[in-house]
Structures are given as structure tokens and as C-alpha cells.
Design a protein that fits this description.
- The complex is a heterodimer of chains A (136) and B (156).
- Chain A is built from five helices and two strands.
- Chain A is an all-alpha fold.
- Chain A has a two-stranded antiparallel sheet.
- In chain A, strand 1 and strand 2 form a beta hairpin.
- The longest helix of chain A has 15 residues.
- Chain A is globular.
- Chain B has a domain of 106 residues.
- Chain B has a two-stranded antiparallel sheet with strand order 1-2.
- The chains are: A mainly alpha (136), B mainly alpha (156).
- Chains A and B meet through helix 4 of A and loops of B.
Chain lengths: 136, 156
């Protein structure tokens, strides 16, 4: 049995956000991660909305998440530089959203760096998805 | 119905490289996903091979954004772009190559009224889909052309 330990350790390491494939699953795994430093953490719609709309002062054109994604997640957004239409983030109108961990992580990384000027924390990601999904 | 007073001479004046296949050919799925997320997946024939190479080499700082890809995807897209690039297309004058500033593009769009480029629905010359309704599928044919504020060029 001993020889399996490293494998389990590896799987446990991977079993963070990377393994979710539903919006609720992402919220849960980001929340679990957040709870390590903020015991009792629960994702919150209002915090998520404030995060998405906040002007971070890092980029002129891309001041906030809502500069490209509509402030109503069920509506399409528009890329603030190129003008391209961006499909709604809300999984209830766009079922492809929050189904692919690689895609979710890639865009959190890109967009957070650009807008917030750093990576987003697991707590911020959980709040954001909670907002995008709407109130429970 | 207001139509643009444009004499449709485009087909006659298309240089040899710009055959229909180049403009409307199927897009590599990875190209469509990765390079069609922030803007139209531009037709590969509208930049020359050297310009595509430059573009692919600078993805981590791509027009002020991070468009970096993993090595495998980047390799696949880079090879496909080289294969389908416009071989006789002139260089883009910009240090970061733009297909919207090549002489070919400017000439092909010279009849587009200045007001149309400035229309908020267009916003940016690279927003091909504002006028070319099939742009995201790689379709730039005349039938799918509709300029905001001017309507379709030809009544059906």
C-alpha cells in the first residue's frame, strides 16, 4: 500500500479547483480553498457583484470586470477594446459557462491580471461565480 | 432602402493569393477558440508569414493583453498560420502586425465611409463582425455584409 501514497498525495493536490465542472462545483472548491485562510467562508452574491463592478484603477480601458462582461450576467457583454460581443457569463442562459476547469482558470488568470493587477484569490473567484449564478 | 454607392469590383481586383478558399476556408478549431475569443478569428491569408510569426512570438504581451498559450497549442496554431498565410501579402507597417493596416486591407475598404468606422457599433476596424456578419465563422462574402447605419449593400 505504501507505494500508492505519493499517488494519493498527488491526487489530493490536484483535487482543488481544477476538478470542478459545474458552476456549483467551482464555487464549492474555491470556497473550500478560501476557508483554509478564512474559516467559515461562504460565497456571497453582493460581494461578488461589488467585486465585478469595482474600478480597480489598474487599466484605463479595462477598469472593471463589467467593462467587458455586462453588469447583468444573463446579458451579452462587449470587449472594451475590440468591440467583439462576449456571450453571457450566466450559466443559466449559457450552459457552456463554468464547465471546463482549464478554461475557467485561464480566463480568471488573464482577466484578473489585467483588471485587478494580480491573480484573484479563491474567495474572490467563489464570490464572482456566485454573483454570476444569481442569488440562491 | 439605402445602399452604398460602391461598384463591386472586388472580385476582379483580388490578387491571386486571395482566392476564395483563403478567405472562407475552414478555421483550425484551436485557432477559432484561442484567437477568436477576444476578437474575430482573422482570416490567416490577410497577414504574411513573417507577420504571423511575429504575432505568435509576442502573445504574452499581445496589444497590451496576455494571450499566451501552452507550447503545444501555440505550435499547432503557428504551423497552421504559416501554412495559410498570405504569401504575397505586403508587410504590416506596425511593429505589432495589424492586418487592418496592410495596403491590401486599406485598399479593399477604401469605399467604407469614415463615419462607418467611427460608429459606436463598429468601434474598431478589427471588429470585423460589425459589418461582416459571418466573420466569426470565417465568412467574408458580400452577401453577409451590412454596415451599421448603412444597411445591407445589396437588397435581396
Amino acid at each position: 500500500m505504501k507505494s500508492f501514497l505519493p499517488l494519493f498525495a498527488l491526487m489530493a493536490g490536484l483535487a482543488g479547483p481544477i476538478w470542478a465542472d459545474t458552476p456549483a462545483g467551482f464555487i464549492q472548491s474555491y470556497s473550500t480553498e478560501a476557508a483554509r485562510t478564512q474559516p467559515g467562508f461562504r460565497a456571497d452574491v453582493a460581494r461578488g457583484r461589488a467585486f465585478a463592478a469595482r474600478d480597480w484603477g489598474v487599466s484605463d480601458k479595462l477598469a472593471s470586470c463589467t467593462a467587458c462582461h455586462s453588469d447583468t450576467p444573463s446579458n451579452p457583454g462587449r470587449h472594451a477594446v475590440t468591440g467583439k460581443t462576449i456571450q453571457p457569463l450566466s450559466p443559466s442562459v449559457n450552459p457552456e459557462r463554468f464547465s471546463d476547469p482549464a478554461k475557467v482558470e485561464k480566463w480568471f488568470k488573464r482577466n484578473c491580471k489585467e483588471v485587478v493587477g494580480r491573480l484573484c484569490s479563491p474567495a474572490e473567484k467563489a464570490d464572482f461565480i456566485q454573483f454570476v449564478m444569481g442569488a440562491r | 432602402m439605402k445602399t452604398l454607392p460602391i461598384v463591386f469590383a472586388a472580385f476582379a481586383s483580388l490578387p491571386a493569393w486571395a482566392d476564395e478558399a483563403r478567405l472562407t476556408g475552414p478555421l483550425l478549431p484551436a485557432y477559432k477558440t484561442e484567437c477568436g475569443s477576444c476578437h474575430t478569428p482573422f482570416p490567416p491569408g490577410l497577414l504574411n508569414p513573417g507577420d504571423w510569426k511575429k504575432t505568435m512570438a509576442g502573445l504574452d504581451q499581445h496589444f497590451g493583453t496576455d494571450a499566451a498559450l501552452d507550447a503545444k497549442t501555440a505550435g499547432q496554431i503557428g504551423a497552421w498560420l504559416q501554412q495559410h498565410a498570405g504569401r504575397t501579402m505586403g508587410r504590416s507597417p506596425d511593429p505589432e502586425p495589424r492586418l487592418t493596416t496592410t495596403r491590401w486591407f486599406v485598399r479593399e475598404h477604401r469605399e467604407v465611409p469614415a463615419r462607418a468606422w467611427q460608429d459606436p457599433r463598429v468601434k474598431n476596424a478589427a471588429n470585423c463582425a460589425a459589418c461582416h456578419k459571418g466573420a466569426d465563422q470565417g465568412q467574408f462574402g458580400e452577401r453577409e455584409l451590412s454596415i451599421p447605419g448603412y444597411g445591407r449593400r445589396h437588397d435581396d
